[in-house]
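User: Here's a chain of 103 residues. Predict its fold as tokens.
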Amino acid sequence: MNRIEQLNNFLKENPKDNFVRHSLALEYIKMGDDLKARILFEEILDDSPDYVGSYYHLAKLLERLHQTNLAIEWYEKGMLAARHANDMHAYKELQSAYEDLIY
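Assistant: Prediction complete.
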């Protein structure tokens, strides 16, 4: 059984597990399936806007897809979420990526 199958099996047991959904999205990126990854990241952030780690990966994916305005929006949302969670490490990563994109 490959990693994607394993993660999907975990999701059958607990469909809202953000860690598993995030991991699955990263696997989809590795496989080149950006659409499935994007859908998962957006679902995570719709359900759990405090799941700070997914903002960076979603915004990076959007950058690769040349959807710069959407990437900027997600970086900004992520920085707000990180600040709210008092996660300064994530905030700095998001801010750095954001600044690299807009400057």
